[in-house]
From TrEMBL:
Record's keyword terms, sorted: Heme, Iron, Metal-binding, Monooxygenase, Oxidoreductase
Pfam families: p450 (PF00067)
Alphabetical list of InterPro entries matching this protein: Cyt_P450, Cyt_P450_B, Cyt_P450_CS, Cyt_P450_sf
Listed PROSITE patterns: CYTOCHROME_P450 (PS00086)
Protein name (database record): Cytochrome P450
Length: 411
């Protein structure tokens, strides 16, 4: 494999569904051409692939030089052209730069601070028990992703938002469609119009939530967002609904990928499963290792506002850069034996939550949920094995396992 061939993997959704293929490509790029020009035209516009941990950090630290807009994610050339002509389909925190990013982020920030997390711990623990009990009810065999992993964090974040439980399946389906737009099993369709239809359905749902919470505010995150103000005025419809969408989707999909991928890693590394059985205090480090191992968010893009030299490579003003988080999280210069799954790994300086101004708002919640689930599961798990072939989502943005057939014995 040449560096040019390796670079093209970053714009190939199927590569992210084949972990060995992806990491072979990323390892080669880190070694031979860590800041590599990728031109996957005509489907995608070109970009610089940034694959080293130190370089991703360098870019993320300088938010005044490297902006999220106008190309915050790797999208098709068709989608880029549509956004340039009509604006982004969504304007979430992911899409925004300061000063707007800072003021919008502050609206919900208190809900994810340590005190709020302490208050939420009981609910998270209750739901962890509920879904471990669900595994018992399923009789010793299930598709762990479909039957357990997608539901547990969904219930956590939608409970925090204060949405009715009857609406949870609808939000799950819309989330899978918006993040699975490149996956033949999960997408609604292949065209830009069909992706717009998914976003339109989100808008229709959350417009109703906004109207209700402004008329009848309650003590939930949905009310905080609906009544959030900037410069004395309520958020406009686009900002309000985009805020809901990023919290309701990223707030559960990334964690479900971590929990499913974490369980798969324990199956593949039974010695690490035994370490967790023997030492429950490792649940916290294990959660971080699962997050590093899976790295649910595969990339974000940045655009250079001026000429810049990175590792001897000349980046030109206006160039796009793809920050490869799976690559940074397996960087041999940062992680000892990076392809070893180690539930006791310390330190663990992974970049799965990003860094700097755009550090994931829900990072503490994701860690809490993952730790709570495995702290509940491991003491009750007597046997665990695969019951079929795991399958991953084809994506270039957010994803993980979509099927994990398992066979197990519980107490």
């Amino acid at each position: 494999m040449t560096p040019d061939e390796a670079g093209l993997a970053l714009a190939d959704p199927s590569a992210y569904a084949e972990e060995d293929r992806l990491h072979t490509a990323l390892t080669l790029l880190r070694k031979e051409d860590p800041v590599h020009w990728v031109d996957p035209s005509p489907e995608f516009n070109p970009f610089w692939a940034v694959t080293k941990h130190a370089d991703v950090l360098e870019i993320e630290r300088q938010q005044d030089i490297f902006l999220n807009g106008p190309r915050p994610l790797l999208a098709t050339a068709e989608a880029d052209a549509h956004a340039a002509e009509n604006g982004q389909l969504l304007t979430t925190l992911v899409h925004l730069d300061d000063p707007k990013h800072k003021v919008l982020r502050a609206i919900a920030a208190d809900w994810f601070k340590p005190r709020a997390m302490r208050d939420l711990q009981l609910r998270v623990d209750e739901l962890a028990v509920r879904y471990v009990d669900r595994m018992v009810e399923l009789g010793g065999e299930c598709d762990f992703v479909r039957d357990v992993a997608v539901h547990y964090p969904l219930y956590v974040i939608l409970s925090l938002l204060g949405l009715p439980e009857s609406d949870f399946p609808r939000i799950l389906k819309l989330t899978q469609e918006i993040f699975g737009g490149q996956d033949t099993e999960q997408r609604r369709g292949q065209t830009q119009e069909e992706m717009i239809a998914v976003v339109t359905d989100f808008f229709a749902y959350f417009q109703g939530i906004t109207t209700d919470r402004r008329a009848n505010p309650t003590n939930d995150l949905a009310s905080t967002i609906a009544n959030g103000m900037v410069d004395g005025e309520l958020l406009n419809d686009m900002d309000t609904i985009s805020y809901y969408v990023i919290v309701a989707t990223a707030g559960h999909d990334t964690t479900s990928s971590t929990i499913a991928g974490g369980l798969h890693a324990l199956i593949e590394n039974p010695d690490q499963l035994q370490r967790l059985r023997d030492d429950p205090s490792l649940a916290g480090p294990a959660a971080d290792e699962m997050i590093r191992w899976v790295t649910p968010v595969k990339e974000f893009m940045r655009t250079a506002t001026r000429d810049y030299e990175l590792r001897g490579v000349s980046i030109k003003e206006g160039d796009s850069l793809l920050l490869s988080y799976p690559s940074a999280n397996r960087d041999e210069d940062v992680f000892e034996d990076p392809f070893r799954f180690d539930v006791g790994r310390t330190p663990n300086k992974h970049l799965a939550f990003g860094f700097g101004a755009h550090y994931c708002l829900g990072a503490a919640l994701a860690r809490m949920e993952t730790k709570a689930f495995f702290s509940t599961l491991i003491p009750r798990l007597d046997a665990l094995d695969l019951a079929g072939k795991p399958e991953s989502v084809a994506t270039t943005f957010v994803g993980g396992l979509k099927h994990l057939p398992i066979r197990y014995q519980m107490r």
